[in-house]
Amino acid sequence: MTHSTGSTHSVGSGQARSTPIIIFFISAIIILSVVQTIVSNRLSTSGIALGKIEDQIRSLKMANAILGERLFKASALTTIVSKASELGFVEDKSQLVLTKTLPLALKQ
Amino acid sequence: MSWRYRFTFFILSFIFALILSRLFYWQIVKGQELSALAQSQYSGKVSLLPIRGEIKTSDSFPIAGNKISYLVFANPKQIGDKEKASTLLALVLGVKKASISAQLSLDRFWVPLKSDIDTKTKENMRDINLPGIGFEQHFSRFYPEASLAAQLVGFVGKDDSGQDKGYFGLEGYYDRLLRGKGGSVVEIHDALGKPILSKANESEGEVNGSSLILSIDRSIQFLAQRKLKEGIEDYGASGGMVGIMDPATGNILAMSSFPSFSPDSFQDYADDLYKNPFISNTYEPGSTIKPLIMSSALDAGLVTPDTKCPICDKPVSVGGYDLHTWNDKYYKDTNMIDVIKHSDNTGMVFVAQKLGLDRMISYLTKFGIGQSTNIDLQGEVVPELKKRNLWYSVDLATTGFGQGISVTPIELLNAFSGIANGGKLMQPHVVAGVQSPDGEIVSIPPKVMGIPISSKTAKVMTEILVNAVNNGEASWARLKGYRVAGKTGTASIPVKGHYDPNQTIASFIGFAPANDPKFVMLVIIDRPTSSIYGAETAAPVFFSIAKDLLSYYGIPPEE
Asked: Whole-model pTM?
């Protein structure tokens, strides 16, 4: 009887010890699952932001390339000479040179 | 153990074995296939084409740059009214309607309609809002200065696999450096096709092409090209070329030739226009070779400027041929200064005979004649000197005045720059530096090819050439106040074993300022019709360019 009672007491105290552990593990599993769900959700929605950033980079690069093309076209000597001619500019063929010879006034 | 336990154990073992065998099937037998299938569902591999490097002049201006262009394609299965779509597309794209209709009638999901359309055309395409039309963006070559230095730059075409490939000139010579290396990127995305941040895109292998920074001065190139074109028109010539070089470094400052082509639409031009005649054409240099022969004899101590020519009073007979002067005027006991001044062929026969065959070949070789200049351009031709046993006595005599010997313009320009540079011959080059995609510039240092003559000989020869400019046949065109060293040349064109008396290659080679040369220039006018002489065609073009060059460099007249 005594033995039987002792055995019953031992099983009861073992169950009491394992219950918090089980609760701990179950809680951990639930918490980690929730965390994973939240993180995954965040990551997948961040993809939209990333997509937007990539689109922006792409459009800026394109704008830069288009502006570069226009800039080089406008600053090409071929274009400048043609525009200058249209505007009535003529080539200056005379050269003004300051020689080492002393001016007449100083010579005297 | 009761039968229940055994039964449960058996069932569980069976299920476990079943799972294990299925896992083996999925992971080992079908592993690769399923992995590829999965990857195709959540990721896409995109090929990345490298951006071709630019070709920039010395002021970092891209004479061959890149622009965004598009390939227009269609999915014929998504286009309802193909007749209407063909009409609209033909109008916007500027393509024949029949060609568009033919493409749209194909039983395919993807057909190309037109490549290399610009951004404006793409916007126009968007406005008509046709279903089943798409665009593929890529970079294509863009030439802001149009056909400036076209034969120097070359062009970009396609290779056998449809990839960009450079042909001729710099595009051909530096193709591997300019084209870079293609790569690929794996993009991980979610069910909606949006990229996932946790799996960053991994690009591998892609390296954009390096850019070339040339020694070509854009202003000088533009100036030379314009003046050459005017000269060709003025003298009714069939073509011409000009090369300008810095003798101290070997930097090519300008190189131009006509007729030329437009690299934007190279397909519309004849194939023979693609090559750069300044490095690919050979011709008999005529009198422009005389300074090389004379300086060789001066350097060898066989003649001095005051040496009198004992055979210059009449035509010279060599090997059964009578050799005349260009104008049949003969000067008894003329000295070496006047031989160059009058461009006296009989005087040069005397010098060549004094020099002898072995020394002639040796000096010409030292000047780089008959050898590659190793200029960094695709298509350089090397006309070799004849083997020693094939030289006859008349060949030695005629080589003295530039007949019976072939050179390329670059060979002659480079050899002549040896005189301008105090006897030191530099390797000509067009690329001054290479710029990596991350902006780092590696300069290419000048390289000495040899020292064919002493600096003392070079100085003496320079004075003889200054005298030739001031008092020779081209003195009417000279620049007053400047000391320019130079020599005219009128080379006959050999046709079917004899020389055509009415067709010549007129040229002028020179450098300025004579005491500290900033440039050496060779002007060649091909078959001028207004006059056959270099003094009356190439020389005025030379001095016209030289005048602007001296002004560009800010060099005032000395006298």
From this structure: 0.81
